Amino acid sequence: MARKRGHEEHANHEAWAIPYGDLVTLLLALFVVLYSMSSVNEGKYRVLSDSLNEAFGGKPRAAQPIQIGDQPPRGAKPAMIKPLPKMTTPPLKVLSGGKPAAPAGELQLMADQVHKAMADLIDKNLIRVRRTELALEIEIGTDILFASGVADVSTAARPVLARLAAILEPFPNSIRVEGHTDDLPIATVAYPSNWQLSSARAASVVALFMGQGIAPVRMSVAGFGEYRPLASNDSADGRNRNRRVLIVIPRTEPPTITAAFDDGDASDPTATPLAQQLAPAIDRAIEFGSARPKADQDLAAATLTPVPETTP
Question: What is the pTM of this model?
Answer without folding.
Answer: 0.51
